[in-house]
Amino acid sequence: MTIDSLDPEDVDAADILGSAIERREDPALLTGNAEYTDDIQLDGMLHMAVVRSQYGHARLEDIDTSEAEAMEGVHGVYTYEDLTSDETPGGGSFALPTAWLLDSLEQVPHPVLASEKVRHQGDGIAVVVAEDRYTARDAAGAVDVAYERLDAVVHPSEAFADDAERLHDDAEGNVAFDWEIGDAEKTADAFADASHTASIDLENQLLIANAMEPRAAVAEYNPGTDELEVAMTTQNPHVHRLLMAGVIGHPEHKLSVRAPDVGGGFGSKIHHYADEALVAWCSMMHEAPVKWTATRSETYLTDAPGRGHETKAEIAMDDDGNIVGLRVDTMANMGAYLSTFAPAVPTYLYGTLLSGQYDIPAIYGHVKGAFTNVPPVDAYRGAGRPEASFLVERLVHLGAKEVGMDPVEFRKRNFVPDDAFPYETQVAVVYDSGEYGKPMDEALELLDYENFREEQERARDEGTYLGVGFSCYIEACGLAPSELAGQLGAQAGLWESSLVRMHPSGTVTAYCGTSGHGQGHGTTYAQIVANELGVPYDSVEVVEGDTDEIPQGMGTYGSRSAAVGGSSLVKSAQKVVEKGKEIAAHQLEADPDDIEFENGEYSVAGAPARSMSMADVAGAAYLAHDIPAEMEPGLEATSFYDPENFVFPFGTHAAIVEVDPDSGEIEIERYVAVDDVGNQINPKIVEGQIHGGIAQGVGQALYEGAEYDDNATLLTGSMQDYAVPKAEHIPEMETESTVTPSPHNPLGVKGVGEAGTIAAPQAIVNAVADALEPFGVDHIDMPMDAESVWSAVQANATADGGAEPAGDDADPGGER
Amino acid sequence: MTEHDITLTVNGAEHDLTVEARTLLVHALRDELGYTGTNVGCESSLCGACTVRMDGEAVKSCTALAVQADGAEIRTVEDLGTRHDFHPIQEGFQEEHGLQCGYCTPGMMMTALDILEENPDPTREEIREGLEGNLCRCTGYQNIVNAVQNAAKEMQPAAVADGGESDDDPTPATDGGEEL
User: Fold this and answer.
1) B102–A26: do the CB atoms touch at under 8 Å?
2) Which residues in chain A are closer than 8 Å to B100, comparing Cβ atoms?
3) What's the CATH number of domain B3-77, 3.10.20.30, 3.40.50.1820, 3.90.950.20, 3.30.70.100?
4) Could you tell me where the Acidic residues compositional bias lies (chain A) (predicted)?
5) Topology of the domain covering B88-159
6) Low-confidence residues of chain A, pLDDT below 50?
7) What is d(CA A515, CA A245) in angstroms, rounded to the nearest whole number?
8) Distance of residue B13 Cα from the nearest chain A Cα, in angstroms
């Protein structure tokens, strides 16, 4: 169902929360009035370019900057030695920190410029500062670097090989960490007693986020005040400020970080990279504004890729088709260094989701992180949860086949029952609320499932191979209760902060520490605040993404903004309402307990004529001529909202595909998504998030993948080679919702940013496996391009002596 | 580096400027003339974020040289409509939620106008094909296709006149009914 958007002016104030109103962000974005980082032009601004490694792994023998320094228009060329010299500004670590620790974690140094060794192609070796961007790039090309090449490793299995070249002296065997979750012994027993098992051996490929706006930063140092302002492509300005302060050695209170309009992130703009810190340092060095904007090639070499798992896993069932155990062994690619939150991604954001939507009595997960010569791997849309959901749903598909049950019946049999919530899994989380059968039933109805199975059979008889694949996903988002996050290794609290300020005229500015970059927070947050305060939607302005304006913040990622940021705004607004109640009671000469507040009006219980509007109360609060004794003037409130649990969105996605076994081509015939993201603040925005998420999941299933050669040279280093899906590649999506409010936050929201990406890949792979069942094809690694599909069909046809692919006269002997 | 004196007419305003031979049109527009509404996504003509209209044709300004545009009429997103008076394509994107981060949107709209000029009533498939040179990473394209259809409807004079879009309407579809 397509949601129709509404003009906010046509929506009653009382209905603003939950209305599909048009976004207030759009006019600026549609008229060219947006301000992205590269749009910023400052007087006397210099441009920075980074000299990067030619090789995936090499020792640096010599860096000769003399030719570059001599070029006209070049203001300076700097290496690691210059950064750390006593003669230059800043006394920072000049190394990038890791903000999530694990007991077994091997913390390796990550200098912002390489001085002895380069460990991936994106490693910076020197920076050039010049008058314009062309000259800066020319000069970067003129820096002469002598290398001694070293063997490289790309995949974790290669990194762990006995004879593998070691990346870091301290990381023996290239092991970054060794981590486990669940109960190994109990799970081994479950497998020993099981009637059936199914297994899978898969690779979840590395993906590159490809936000349309490349990363960029503009730094401006004021030598008079020692203040350093950095405008940059960030999803979390306060986090970047805190980390950067330590990296460049400039105090946090003299450093401001601002996110102008940000052109997408998908995780890639969470992490603290070297480049932005180098821009800031260069600005101090030259006492002038400095800009750096990544070329697309640079984003391919430096943006943290996501996923990158090699996994062996098994599922165990009893005779009745009940899942009795799940066992997972994963090697996770961490890349060359540990990126900001990287250690959390293949561990706590992955292992804790291995129960999926199912009641599984025994689970064990083992994950070993590997240092390799690809860029540092970190969160990309979904981050750990897509890998978990993919694995669970692939195993469930195979498990159903193993016990001879329909995949729908098998799933329903094993769903966590509706009356079991809150449900504690075997992998350390408690699901908040759910009714997992509901989206499944709705998806089946949309698909007309029974009819489809008949059609599939008829088509097979005619040599046409249709398949349906299901994905019943769960995700944990709304990161996160700070105490729990701390126990798991986070070096930060994961609360969110906000400030709601009534102005004397009755309008409102709401500040929140999240930092949207396309999600429409300006609209949805205004809906939330207008609803709480009972003021017109147009009277609420939302401010995000600026450390100078917003008290504190943790940023936007992990589908946390509505659940954590939105809830913080609710809390701040409620404090404003409470203070307003005291003022209204004073002015109306009533007891505060007798004051009622509804739709922006304070009134005396039983005497509705004695009332004051929120705007009048705000005016009185600032006038301060007649407010309660002891009360401070003004009407605003700050809150730090710390969630009590994660929230757990869920849903069922289903794809119907046609696969041509002769050519290996896959056509998505239908894509149905029924998502339960809890209450919806703005259903049109929810729909957009689901659409975009699915598109990235389709991209992973069919098109995308970062590929490196044996020297760790990126082969997919441009949009020509890395297949970001185009309009023709994405199917029409049929979206529906169910609503199961989360009990854990005042809005009852669950989070929607990542759902589609988490759900989609396995729906498509399961559909392809279903279509190719007559050929004995159980699994094809992503991206499932025509060659890999064709090869899988051929391999199985040959190995099993089974069905010959294709031809009208083929009799594949399907089981259905 | 040799320099050239060129004249660009951007959104009706004539600008004389001196550029290096290698200066890309998009950098001349953005850095020299301040038309920052046109964004750079890949500098290799693959993503389409930088699409502008040059003498009535959609071109990717990251792979055109400024000197190639000497004497040309360039139209950028800044020339569409204002927030109080949207062009139908802007209206379509707003109503259909055809944008999220907005970075691809100016280029997307310029290409959409090209599509609609050639084919005022495109099918969904034709729109998807027409947008093959423009990447969006946020929306999954469905609402962009809706946006272009929405604009197509709005821009057909027949539809405006009789409020309908019947197939047997005798009024011939013109080239858009509004300056593209």
Assistant:
1) yes
2) 264, 518-520, 688, 692
3) 3.10.20.30
4) 806-816
5) DNA polymerase; domain 1 (1.10.150)
6) 801, 806-816
7) 19
8) 17
CB proximity list for A691: less than 8 A, separation 6 or greater: A733, A735, A756, B139, B140, B141, B142, B143
Whether B144 and A727 lie within 8 Å, measured CB to CB? yes
For testing the chain A interface, which of B75, B125, B142 should be mutated: the one with the most A CBs within 10 Å?
B142
- Domain residues of chain A, as ranges? 432-477+646-801, 495-641
Q: Residue B101 and residue A727: Cβ atoms within 8 Å? A: no
CATH code at A432-477+646-801: 3.30.365.10
**3-state secondary structure (DSSP) of residue A98:** coil
Which chain A residues are closer than 8 Å to B27 by Cβ? 133
Distance from CA of A525 to the nearest CA of B (A): 16
Show residues of chain B in contact with A730, CB under 8 Å.
Answer: 140-142
Q: Is A724 on the interface with B (CB under 8 A)?
A: yes
* CATH architecture entry for A495-641: 2-Layer Sandwich (3.30)
The residues spanned by each domain of chain B are: 3-77, 88-159
- Which residues of chain A does B31 touch, with a Cβ-Cβ cutoff of 8 Å? 41, 132-133
Q: What is the pLDDT along chain B (180 residues), one digit of tens a residue?
A: 799 999 999 999 999 999 999 999 999 999 999 999 999 999 999 999 999 999 999 999 999 999 999 999 999 999 999 999 999 999 999 999 999 999 999 999 999 999 999 999 999 999 999 999 999 999 999 999 999 999 999 998 754 444 444 444 444 444 433 444
Residues 6+ away with beta carbon under 8 Å from B91: B150, B151, B154
Strands A255-258 and A465-474: what pairing? unpaired
Q: Which of A799, A774, A777 is nearest to A788 (CA)?
A: A777
* The pLDDT value given to residue B157: 72
Cross-strand bridge partners of residue A364: A182, A327
Same fold? A432-477+646-801, A495-641: yes
Say how far apart CA B9 and CA A661 lie, in whole Å: 54
Preferred mutation among B62, B75, B141 to probe A, highest tally of A CBs within 10 A: B141
Per-residue model confidence (pLDDT) at position A802: 53
CB contact (8 A) between residue B101 and residue A263: yes
Contact flag A720-B142 (C-beta cutoff 8 Å)? no
Helix (H) or strand (E) segment spanning residue A688: helix A683-698
